[in-house]
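During the reporting period the student researcher (J.K.) took over the structure-prediction task from the postdoctoral fellow and processed the backlog of single-chain submissions. One of the processed entries is reproduced below for the supervisory committee.
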Amino acid sequence: MVIPVVWALLEDHFGLAMILFAIAGASDGLDGFLAKHYHWESRLGSILDPLADKLLLVASFASLVWLELLPTWLLWLVLGRDIVIVVGGLAYHYLLGQFTLLPLWSSKINTLFQILLVLGVIIEHYAGLAISFWIDIGIWLVVASVLISGMEYVIVWGRKAWQQHKKNQ
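J.K. obtained the following structure tokens:
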């Protein structure tokens, strides 16, 4: 759904973008529920699912920045957190061994705030609502959750890496 959502946003079809974004979210939720309920979980799925979620969110943020509906610095902050997590995960994998990266609650909250912000901006421009106050609050909630979850990943996985390093010696 990344390409259709981005296309809809860039072509100012905010109603379609809202529907496509909602379909992507609902299908992701259904996929997660089915995987857990029927034990259809796999290592590949545990990597691809959050990667697809991140791709949709980052592409949506980038599109909204391109349209000057979100600040550029916010996109860089979101990307910076994701890069730190990915580089840390790769370093852990190649230096210490395989691991399963389970999302932290702060990360789930961060993702929720990002989704709500994207939807809020889309709704504001689709419906012509004057909700810029709420969009500003959404931006600062994303900032806070990006910083908190990013720091938590560094602390939690830094501690695990240190423990694994000690164990390997």
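The committee noted the following: Helices lie at 2-10, 14-37, 43-66, 72-96, 105-127, 132-168.
J.K. will present the remaining backlog at the next meeting.
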